[in-house]
Amino acid sequence: MFKKLLIANRGEIACRVIKTARKMGIETVAIYSDADAQALHVQMADEAVHIGPPPANQSYIVIDKVMEAITSSGAQAVHPGYGFLSENSKFAEALAEVGVAFVGPPVGAIEKMGDKITSKKIAKEAGVSTVPGYMGLIADADEAVKISNEVGYPVMLKASAGGGGKGMRIAWNDEEAREGFQSSKNEAANSFGDDRIFIEKFVTQPRHIEIQVLCDAHGNGIYLGERECSIQRRNQKVVEEAPSPFLDEATRKAMGEEAVALAKAVGYASAGTVEFIVDGSKNFYFLEMNTRLQVEHPVTELITGVDLVEQMIRVAAGEPLSITQDDVTLTGWAIENRLYAEDPYRGFLPSIGRLTRYRPPMEVAAGPLLDTGKWQGEAPSGETAVRNDTGVYEGGEISMYYDPMIAKLCTWGPDRATAIEAMRVALDSFEVEGIGHNLPFLSAVMDHPIFIKGDMTTAFIAEEYPDGFEGVTLPEAELVRVAAACAAMHRVAEIRRARVSGRMDNHERKVGEDWNVTLQDRSFDVTVDADQSGSTVRFSDGATLRVSGAWTPGDQLAVMQVEDAPLVLKVGNVSGGFRIRTRGADMVVHVRTPRQAELARMMPIKTPPDTSKLLLCPMPGLVVTLHVEPGEEVQVGQALCTIEAMKMENILRAERKGIVSKVNAAAGDSLAVDEVILEFE
C-alpha cells in the first residue's frame, strides 16, 4: 500500500480524500493556490505545497506545477478528486512516466470515456442507445447554429471535456445557440483547458439517473445501485438521492449490467459513473461516463456501506475488489443536498465573502465515513444518520475563483420519508452567515409535493420556479406552530429583561400573558401560560399548543418542540420580535402587547427605492463584455452585459424596452454587488 498520497484538488473533496487516507494510515499532501493558503484541506493534510496564483488555470490545472509538487513531496500516488485534472489523460500519462500511481482509471479509459464525443461514439458502436446529436467538432457559432437546426431545437451545447455543469447551455433558437456556443467555449477553456463543444438533442421531461460502477485491473466489475440526480439548475445537480424513487429492480439491474459492460469494454479500473437519461416508460439512454469520483458519491456510500475512496486507492495499488455483485445490498435511503454560495433571492447568482458563522448540524452515525475517519463497514443502523462533507470553516472565505460549493449535507433513513424528514431538520439546523446561500431553497424543495412524491424530472426547478425563488410562504398549520414558539420565546426574553439589576424600588416591571404575534401577513392573539417545563400557548380560536425546548435569549438557534413535534428555528433579533428562518421561509415575527399591536397597525409602510432604470451588478464578478452603448435602444430580452463569477459566465438581459443613457463600467472591471452598470432614460 502507498505510504504518501497527494490530493490534486481543493475544497470538500480534498478533505474527503484526506479522511479516508488517514483511516488507511496513508500520509497526505495538499496543494494550494494563494487564495487557499488558509483553506481547510491545507490544515488537514500532513503537508502542503504551494502551486501558484488563485486562478485555476495558473495553479490547480497546470500539470507542470502539480508534477513539481509531487516530486518535491515524494508522493507515491495522486488522487485527483473531481473537476480540475481528474479526467485529463495527459496528467495521468505524466504520472505514469515518473512511476506515480494515478488513483483513477487507465489512460486509455480516460481518453475513450472521459471525452464526451468519443464516449458517445463508442457507446453507439457497442449498441448502447444514445441521445441523437452531432458528435463532431464544431468550428464556430455559425456552424453551431446550422447543426442545431439539423438536430432540432431544443439542443444542448456541451463541453467535450466538461463536467459539473461547466461549459453547458440549452438553446431553444438560433440566437441562444450562437450565444451559448461562445459562452460554453469560454467556460470550457477556463475550467478544463479544452474548448471543444458538441451538440445533442435536449430531451424534454427526462430523469437523470446514474449508475455507480467499481472495477479493478483484474477484470472484475460491479455496480452499486443508482443515484437519482434529476433536480438540477443550469445542468448543475442540486439534490441527489439513492436509490431512485422511480426505478424498479428489473430496470436497475439492466442499467447496472449495461454500465459494467461498457466499463469493461474500455478496460476501466477504478470508481466511475455511467449517466443515463430515463424517460417516463423507463427507457434509458446513455448520456456520458464520468471517469472519476462523483460529487454525489456519499449517498451511494450511505446505502451500501462501501467507502468508494478507499476502494479507488486499493484498486490503484493493484488489489482486486474485495466484494462481488452478490455482496452489494442497498439498505435504506440517502439524500444529498448541495449547499452553494449562491443567493436564491438574486436568481442563484454567486456570492462571495467571509463566513462569519458556519455551524453545520452534528454528524450522526453517517455510514462509511465520519470526521473521526471511522468506517462502519455497513450502512447506518440507527433510525437516521447525518453526514456533512465540507471544505470550509467559520471565519474562512468563499473565493470568487472556484466552484461555489460550501458543503454536501447528507441524511440517511430506513425509508425515503424518514430520510426527507431528517434532511428538513438538518437544513433548519445548518447555520451559515456572511454570504448568500441556497439553504432556504433546499428547504423549499424538501417540502415540495412533486419531490415528496418522487415525480421530478430535470425540468423541476425551471418549471416549479420559473420566476426564480422568492422564499416560502408557510402553510397555516406551520405558521401557527412558529407563532406559538415565538410567543413563548418572547415571553422568556421579556422576563429576563424585567429582571435587570439595579432597578429602583417600587419600579418592578410586570410581564403580561396576552400577546399579539404577526408573521407573513397573519396576526394571532395568544395567551402564554408558562411553567418550569415550557409554555402552553392558547389562541383566540380556542386552540392550544404546548411549547418546550432549548433556547435562551441571545441564542441564534432554537431547537423547540411544539406538541412533541420538532421545530428548529434560526433566530435573529429585530425590534419587538425576531427574524425567523425555518423550512425555507425568512420572515420577521413581531410579538407585541395588545396595545402595541393596535398602534403598529397605524404605522405607514416604508417603500423601497426605485431601481427600475438601473442595471445593477447582481453578484461580485468581472465584466467580460458590454453589449450596448450610450444612446442605444434595447429590447426585452436583449443581452446587456456578461459577468463572469466563479468560473461561470452570466448574461444580464433587459427586462423591458428602454434607451441606455449612461455606461458606468467597462470590460475587465471588477464589480461588487449592486454596483450600477448601466443607467436608462
Report on the structure:
With 681 residues, the protein is an alpha+beta fold. 27% of the residues lie in helices and 33% in strands. The protein contains 17 helices and 39 strands. Helix 4 packs antiparallel against helix 5 (107-114), helix 5 (107-114) crosses helix 6 (116-125) and helix 12 runs antiparallel to helix 13. The termini are far apart.
Largest sheet features: 8 strands, antiparallel
Estimated helix fraction: 25-40%
* Major beta sheet, strand line-up: 14-13-10-11-12-15-22-20
Low-confidence stretches: 366-377
Subunit arrangement of the protein: single chain
| Bulk shape | globular
Protein structure class: alpha+beta
Distance between the termini: 69 Å
Per DSSP E runs of 2 or more residues, the count of β-strands stands at: 39
Describe, in short, the structure shown.
The chain is an alpha+beta fold and 681 residues long.
Secondary-structure topology with pairs:
Elements: E1 4-7, H1 11-23, E2 27-33, H2 40-44, E3 47-52, H3 63-73, E4 77-79, H4 89-97, E5 101-102, H5 107-114, H6 116-125, E6 133-134, H7 141-151, E7 155-163, E8 166-171, H8 174-192, E9 197-201, E10 207-215, E11 221-233, E12 236-242, H9 249-265, E13 270-278, E14 284-290, H10 297-304, H11 308-316, E15 333-340, E16 342-343, E17 349-350, E18 353-354, E19 357-359, E20 385-390, E21 397-398, E22 405-413, H12 416-429, E23 431-433, H13 439-446, H14 449-453, H15 460-464, H16 476-498, E24 514-519, E25 522-531, E26 534-539, E27 544-550, E28 557-562, E29 565-574, E30 577-582, E31 585-592, H17 594-600, E32 614-616, E33 621-626, E34 633-634, E35 639-645, E36 648-653, E37 658-663, E38 670-671, E39 676-680
Parallel strand pairs: 1-2, 1-4, 2-3, 4-5
Antiparallel strand pairs: 6-9, 7-8, 7-9, 10-11, 10-13, 11-12, 12-15, 13-14, 15-22, 16-17, 18-21, 19-23, 20-22, 24-25, 24-31, 25-26, 26-27, 27-28, 28-29, 29-30, 30-31, 32-39, 33-35, 33-38, 34-37, 35-36, 37-39
